[in-house]
Every structure is written in structure tokens, then in C-alpha cells.
């Protein structure tokens, strides 16, 4: 605000001038404070109370309700997340256990295959079913002959 625009109720403070000399801090004149009555009347208090109650009822109460709903949702989601982490850890442990069992069974199978390859293979040692060679039907199904 330029000095020429200052009203008679305000004064310029030189200690607030900047180096360019354009910006000033404007303070009201002391006489304007002397005319203000500092004691509020009952209607002003009642009006302020009604305004605060309206703020509480129309803005603050719904906000508190929304925050509590969100807190419940966050708590539920957090519990579900923790449960999912526990289940994931259990699945990981079970998978590792199954993989170790698979590896042990593969090692056992490899050992059996090596042992089987080293032993002499005989045609007569192959398992045979009791069949009638002419018809290819097992002997206990004689009615199919």
C-alpha cells in the first residue's frame, strides 16, 4: 500500500520499510481500539453457540462417523492381510516340504533304476498272467472262450 493511500486512521511504520521504500506495514490508529466494546452480549454468545452446534452436527459428526467406518475397514483389511501372510508362509513351508520329499523319491527312483539296469534281465522273470494261449482269455473266464 502506498503512503498516499493511507487513511487518517492508520499510520506508517518506518522500521517496516523495505529497501525499495514501497511496502509498509499499516497499523490501525490507537483511537479505533478505544471505541470497541470488549464485552460480548448474550445474543452474540447464543449465535456463536448455535453456529458451533451446526458445525458439530452438519460437518463434524459425519466426519467422525466416516473416520470410524474407515478405521473399522482398515482393521478388517489388516487382519485379512495378516491371515493371508500366514497362509502364504504355510503354503511356502508345505511346498518346500513336498519338494524335499520329491527330491528324496527321485533319488530313490534313480537308485532303483540303476540297480535294475545292473541286474541281468530275464524274459521268464517278467510277470505273466494265467491265460489260455490259444484264446488270450484268462482261465477263470472260461465262458468267454
Question: What does this protein look like?
Answer:
This protein has a two-stranded antiparallel ribbon with strand order 1-2. It starts with 9 loop residues before the first strand and ends in a 27-residue tail after the last helix. The protein is built from 2 helices and 2 strands; from the N terminus they run E-E-H-H. The protein is elongated, with a radius of gyration of 48 Å. Mean pLDDT is 76; it is low at 1-17. 0% of the residues are buried. Helices cover 57% and strands 4% of the residues. With 145 residues, the protein is mostly helical. It has helices at residues 30-34, 42-118; strands at 10-12, 26-28. It has one domain.
Class computed from helices, strands and strand pairing: mainly alpha
Overall structural domain count: 1
Main sheet properties: 2 strands, antiparallel
Radius of gyration equals 48 Å
Please count the helical segments. 2
The helix-strand sequence is EEHH
Dominant shape: elongated
Task: Report the end-to-end length measured between terminal Cα atoms.
Answer: 122 Å
DSSP strand content? under 5%
Count the E strands. 2
Question: What is the topology, as strand order, of the major beta sheet?
Answer: 1-2
* Low-pLDDT residue intervals, each spanning 5 or more residues: 1-17
* Overall pLDDT confidence: 76
Helix content: 55-70%
Amino acid at each position: 500500500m502506498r503512503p498516499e493511500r493511507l487513511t487518517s486512521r492508520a499510520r506508517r511504520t518506518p522500521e517496516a520499510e523495505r529497501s525499495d521504500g514501497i511496502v509498509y506495514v499499516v497499523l490501525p490508529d490507537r483511537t479505533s481500539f478505544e471505541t470497541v466494546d470488549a464485552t460480548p452480549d448474550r445474543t452474540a454468545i447464543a449465535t456463536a453457540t448455535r453456529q458451533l452446534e451446526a458445525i458439530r452436527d452438519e460437518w463434524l459428526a459425519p466426519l467422525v462417523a466416516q473416520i470410524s467406518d474407515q478405521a473399522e475397514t482398515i482393521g478388517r483389511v489388516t487382519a485379512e492381510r495378516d491371515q493371508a501372510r500366514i497362509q502364504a508362509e504355510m503354503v511356502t513351508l508345505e511346498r518346500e516340504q513336498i519338494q524335499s520329499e520329491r527330491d528324496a523319491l527321485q533319488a530313490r527312483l534313480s537308485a532303483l533304476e540303476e540297480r535294475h539296469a545292473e541286474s541281468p534281465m530275464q524274459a521268464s522273470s517278467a510277470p505273466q498272467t494265467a491265460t489260455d494261449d490259444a484264446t488270450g482269455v484268462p482261465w477263470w473266464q472260461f465262458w468267454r472262450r
